[in-house]
Structures are given as structure tokens and as C-alpha cells.
Amino acid sequence: MELDKDALQKMKKYWPDTWEKVLDHYNALEEKFMADIKTQRFEGRAKQMLLDRIKGRQMLLEFEQSTLAAIIPKNRLKDGVTYVAMEGTGNLNRHIDEARWDEKIQMFWYTRTKFGHTFEDTMHHFADVINDGLAGFTPIKTK
User: Fold this and answer.
1) Residue 102: alpha-carbon gap to chain centroid
2) Are 126 and 137 in contact (CB under 8 A)?
3) I need a labelling partner for 80 at 20 to 30 A (CA). Which of 40, 104, 129, 137 fits?
4) N-terminal to C-terminal alpha carbon distance within the chain
5) pLDDT in tens, 10-21
6) Is 0.85 surpassed by the pTM of this model?
């Protein structure tokens, strides 16, 4: 299939190590479409699927970049300041909307209720979460 220069450049950017394999896959898919149906009706369908995949990858990367850009890095947090969590991260941060940064221990303090008892607990910064078992607070602004 013939792709324009822009599509090829995007493929090389989004899949630097595997762009040729991705292109080969869609070329083979195009050939299969043509062999299976023996008609011109689906000509170019694999190309459109590939272009849609490139666009989807671009949108995903832009979303990831804008999301990460919104999170306040640890080195910009101020001791004792209460921060608000990024919307939509509730299940990743124990459903906490706000937490106070403690510079000394490099963690957030928040109020937690468990088994009918309310107490203060700590949580890591998003950047310090090293496995799925830890919760990480994603600060985006001060309260």
C-alpha cells in the first residue's frame, strides 16, 4: 500500500523499533482482504485501518503527555501544603481528594476511615509508586 510521507514519519515516531512490522502486517491484511473478497469494494480498507491506528496512537500519546504535565512533581511540592488530586484517579489513590505534603518523610498525609475509625495515614507521591500494591497521590493543584 502507498502511504504519504506524513503517515510514514508518524509511524517511525510512534513505533521506532517496529514500524516496518506494523506496515507489513497491514500490507498483508490488505492482500488478504483483496484475496478473500475478490472485489474492489474493500480496496484501501487496511490502509484506512492503519491510518486510524496511527491517529489513535497519536491521541493516546498526547493524552498521556497532557496528563503527566498536569501532575506536580515532588521537587515543586511545599511542606505542609494541602494538594488536590487529579480527577479520575480515585481508585489509584484510595479515593482521597486531598492530602498534605510532608517534606521530611517525602509522603502525603490524609484522613482515612477504616472499620469505623478515623485516623491519619500516609501515601506515596505518584512518582514513587513502584508496584500495583501501592497507592500514589497525584497532586495537580493546591487547595
Assistant:
1) 27
2) yes
3) 129
4) 54
5) 999 998 999 999
6) no
Over residues 117-137, the pLDDT tens digits come to 999 999 999 888 866 667 788
Q: What grid cell was written down for 137?
A: 497521590
* Domain residue ranges of the chain, discontinuous segments joined by +: 5-70, 74-142
What is the spatial distance between Cα 57 and Cα 54, in angstroms, rounded to a whole number? Answer: 5
DSSP assignment of 70-136 equals: HSPPGGG--TT-EEEEPTT-GGGTTT-SEEEEETTTTEEEEEEEETTEEEEEEEEEGGG--STTS-E
Q: Whole-angstrom Cα distance, residue 4 to residue 62? A: 22
